[in-house]
Amino acid sequence: DAGVIQSPRHEVTEMGQEVTLRCKPISGHDYLFWYRQTMMRGLELLIYFNNNVPIDDSGMPEDRFSAKMPNASFSTLKIQPSEPRDSAVYFCASLRLDYMNEQFFGPGTRLTVL
Amino acid sequence: AQTVTQSQPEMSVQEAETVTLSCTYDTSENNYYLFWYKQPPSRQMILVIRQEAYKQQNATENRFSVNFQKAAKSFSLKISDSQLGDTAMYFCAFMRNPTNNAGNMLTFGGGTRLMVKP
Question: What is the mean pLDDT of residues A86-113?
Fold first, then answer.
């Protein structure tokens, strides 16, 4: 398996623009997580899905952020409009609930908002 | 809510020596999982070792082992025979009992930056 795939790896945009981050989880995994990593706040959960259904979005910073999972193999995280304080590394991770309970992380998307 | 604390922002160790990274956590749960993740400069998150709270035996993976003290809510990572490739950020993470929908996310500590010196 190719692991969790994220695109793009790097994104530079200007304040006010819409940004869409993409994630393909590992096949057969029924949980998908979006995390954000910043120097100030460390690694924090934004939202997670189970069987394509959002379970907990309490970590989503504000209405400018939205996430969807239209099917088991694809999820998006959208920021509209983007602001400089959204600059961070965004990770997607997937999980199959079994005795291992290991979350597999994608390589992350480094977002810079100018 | 669960919290995870790593009190050592930075550490260094000489190659081939042993180093221990500290982690404490706070929870009212009885059944949970603990993890150590490694993040090298490539920023890829890599699982190093896991521990189930119901297991008394400390987990071991080659040069990596943990000291799990459930009563003290402590979960330290020991790296033996340190190698240059161990240079990375290390994150301690907590997961509640994953058998229900509310428990599957990871709560991370702030991380410890480890540098292995030649």
Answer: 92
Question: What distance lies between CA A60 and its chain's CA centroid?
Answer: 11
A110, β-bridge pairs: A10, A89
Whether A14 shows a pLDDT value over 90: the answer reads: yes
Task: Give the mean pLDDT per block of 10 residues along chain B (118 residues).
Answer: 92 97 94 94 94 92 96 97 97 83 81 97
Choose the closest CB to B98 out of A43, A97, A108: A97
Spatial separation of the C-alpha atoms in residues A68 and A30, rounded to whole Å = 14
CA–CA gap between residue A107 and residue A85 (Å, rounded): 21
The model's pLDDT over A28-58, given as tens digits with 9 standing for 90+, comes to: 998 999 999 999 999 999 999 999 999 989 9
Using an 8 Å CB-CB cutoff, list chain A residues near B100.
none
Tokens linked to A93: 């991770």
- Cβ A45 vs Cβ A61: under 8 Å: no
Tell me, yes or no, if B100 comes closer than 8 A to chain A by beta carbon: no
What does the alpha-carbon distance between residue A85 and residue A114 come to, in Å, rounded to a whole number? 9
CA–CA separation, B68 vs A101, rounded Å?
18
d(CA A15, CA A90): 17
